[in-house]
Amino acid sequence: MDYYSILGIDRNATEQDIRKAYKKMSMQHHPDRGGDEETFKKVNEAYSTLKDPQKKQMYDMGGNPNQGYQRQGNGPFEFHFGSGNMDDFFAGFGFGGHRQAQNRSVNVGIDIRLEDVLYGKDIDAEVSLPGHGPKIINIKIPKGIQSGQQIRYQGLGDDTIKNIRPGDLIVNINVLPHRTFVRNGDNIICEKQVDVLKLITGTKEIVTTLDGRKITIGVPKGTQPDTLLSCKGEGLPNIQTGKRGNLLIKIKGIVPRNLSQDAYDKIEEINNGI
To answer: What average pLDDT does this structure show over 70-98?
Structure first.
């Protein structure tokens, strides 16, 4: 099933484009308006996936967007990008929906380090909530979370209007840049400077991992600058499976300076013999 074709949009569509297309197609195919029920279900399924950045990314990569998408932890906590409640949307049209009144959701931002992505982290944050005032909220950062993802705490948002359901607290995650490592999905990349003479003969180098351990890597003889060497399982955990990605080491060749004259003579002799 091609969700993009169902909504009549291309793969570069923005969130606004997706919602606009959904509104148009849902009104066109809603059974209460004489539409086809099966087509209407497909429209809902397409929108449910494409409106959710995490599900959309999984779908675009050929995966099943409904696998591993579940509640985590205890209490009114949910990790995802959106509520996924179709009734909320249709209540505004006056047909088929029964929307429960709710106070506004509250958005807050949290900065975390790349190391927090590796281990996960509990953060006690003071949040000013309408209807509550300042309140300490324990925010559980799951391993493998990505920058831009959200954690939703149901019922911990605005509670100004007391006779309706409280809103949600939505925590927006921002992973700060690391001074050594660059994230690439579940992999992390770092650079290692190696003497070009050692690249010719091959060598062993020590690399520090994200968790601070020292590991030895073998650099094969004849390795070219900018080659990527991989250390399996030394990357970040996948948020769905927990399986860790790889550490990719980009080899940067450096020319040695201040060699002895004898060393220069030997190098020149080698060059003349090539």
So the answer is: 38
CA-based nearest residue to 15, from 44, 53, 46 = 53
**Other C-beta atoms within 10 Å of 55: how many?**
23
Least confident range of 18-27, 214-223, 263-272: 263-272
DSSP letter, residue 129: E
Q: Which residue has the higher pLDDT, 90 or 267?
A: 267
| Burial annotation 187-218 (CB, 10 A radius, 16+ → b, else e) | bbbbeeebeeebbeeebebebebbeeeeeebe
User: Based on the structure, what is the number of domains in the chain?
Assistant: 3
Q: In this structure, is residue 215 part of a structural domain?
A: yes
Domain span at residue 85 reads 70-176
pLDDT digits (tens, 9 = 90+) for 172-231: 999 999 999 999 999 999 999 999 999 999 999 999 999 999 999 999 999 999 999 999
Are 74 and 129 within one domain? yes
State how far the Cα of 252 lies from the Cα of 95, in Å rounded to an integer.
Answer: 63
Q: Identify the CA nearest to 168 among candidates 151, 181, 144.
A: 151
Q: At what angle do helices 53-60 and 37-50 cross, to 10 degrees?
A: 100
pLDDT of 69 above 70: no
Top mean pLDDT of 89-98, 100-109, 211-220 is at 211-220
C-beta neighbour count of 259 within 10 angstroms: 13
Three-state secondary structure of 96-116: CCCCCCECCCEEEEEEECHHH
Supply the pLDDT for residue 101. Answer: 79
Q: What are the CA-CA distances from residue 251 to residues 71, 190, 205 (Å)?
A: 41, 9, 11
Which residues face 107 on adjacent strands? 170
Domain at 132, CATH number: 2.60.260.20
